[in-house]
Amino acid sequence: MKALILVGGKGTRLYPLTYTLPKPLVPIVNRPFIGHMMRRLSNYGITEVVMSMCYLPDMLKHYIESEDNFGMKVDYVIEDCPLGTGGAIKNAASHFNETFMVFNGDVLTDLDLGKMIDYHTRRGSVATISLAYVDDPTAYGVIDTDDNGRILRFTEKPAPDAVTSHHINAGTYIFEPEILDYIPPETEYSLERKVYPDLLAHKRPMYGYFEEAYWLDIGNPEKYFQAHRDIAAGYVSIDGLSFNEGDDVVIGENAVISPTARITGPAYIGDGVRIMDGVDLGPNVFIGRNSIVDSHSSLKESILWENVVIGEGAVLNRAIIGTSSRIRPAVYLDPGAVIGCNERV
Ligand code: GDD
Ligand code: MG
């Protein structure tokens, strides 16, 4: 089966990290998120992927090519200006003349795609949407189904008093090509606000697929942190990482750690990282390759990308620091601070 990945958004909720980097390249435990996703699709036997891009497409393309397309055939469809989730699918219509899958490009999940495809086929569905259960559905597309899973209503980002269900659109779809007839060409158009309600108004069979899978949209700093914590806790596993559970400390090649540093797991210390004397590090600290954490600094619940330098005695709690940024000695960062790439603080 062919798949379309929607990766055209600007990732504004992750600013300033995404000023210079498209959201799919934001690293999850030191590797671009899209890499985890592409490996997963390939493991499920998907052989052809269309990337629907808009924001910083060359960087993304360059990364995918550098990974030999993850062993799949990859095509790129690039929008001059954002066409929205529906318009983006229509824009790639020439690639799809049989059942196809569509993925939001910012979802970390271990959903069983094989089971979802079976479900779609057995129900004779035109559009099958994976469902997740969340406590607060207001940031998502809310979905009501009947007992058989047939979708009765789709409401994108409802006001709190309009929430009718805790089941939400989890951003993995299986479509019949018929859906393309519901989207005008070359027009900005929303899948969630226009196409789904329209299919329902025409009484076309749409089904929600629910499974007890891990699910998280990583698109804001809080969720981005949560993804790391959950991976370290073993709630979800990602390719090529050996976190088991609990308080593992994963140390990369050629990392140098002072014997006087105190490290509390879970923690990830990337290749070539240097941790100096008296550093107090962890839990839930993830450090990208070749970063330096200078003496007596303290890092908790924080994510450093590559080539970051943390000055002597600096204090970080729930911070995210972009590639090649430097935190000067003795700086205290407010909890939750997000520093972009190539900054000096
Ligand atoms: N090509 C293209 N063009 N892609 C786009 C565009 C566009 O104009 N706009 C958004 N995308 C991509 C984003 O890059 C992202 O991968 C995906 O479409 C979803 O966009 P988000 O901006 O992340 O949407 P959201 O998280 O607010 O809401 C969506 O995802 C939720 C689940 O995570 C909706 O689909 C909700 O209904 C859903 O619950
Ligand atoms: Mg999102």
Keywords:
345 residues; alpha/beta; Spore Coat Polysaccharide Biosynthesis Protein SpsA, Chain A; UDP N-Acetylglucosamine Acyltransferase, domain 1; 2 domains; seven-stranded mixed beta sheet; six-stranded parallel beta sheet; 6 helices; 28 strands; 18% helix; 29% strand; elongated; binds guanosine-5'-diphosphate-alpha-D-mannose; binds magnesium ion
- CATH topology annotation of the largest domain: Spore Coat Polysaccharide Biosynthesis Protein SpsA, Chain A
Relative strand content: 25-35%
CATH class of the largest domain: Alpha Beta
Radius of gyration in whole Å, from Cα?
21 Å
Ligands, ions, cofactors: guanosine-5'-diphosphate-alpha-D-mannose, magnesium ion
The first-to-last residue Cα distance is: 48 Å
What global shape is seen?
elongated
Average pLDDT metric: 94
What's the helical proportion of residues? 10-25%
Please mark out the parts with pLDDT under 50 across 5 or more consecutive residues, or reply none.
Answer: none
Number of helices: 6
Annotated CATH architecture of the largest domain:
Alpha-Beta Complex
Secondary-structure class: alpha/beta
Q: In the CATH hierarchy, what is the superfamily of the largest domain?
A: Spore Coat Polysaccharide Biosynthesis Protein SpsA, Chain A
Number of domains: 2
What topology, given as strand order, has the largest sheet?
5-4-1-6-11-8-12
Please give the number of β-strands. 28
Largest sheet: 7 strands, mixed
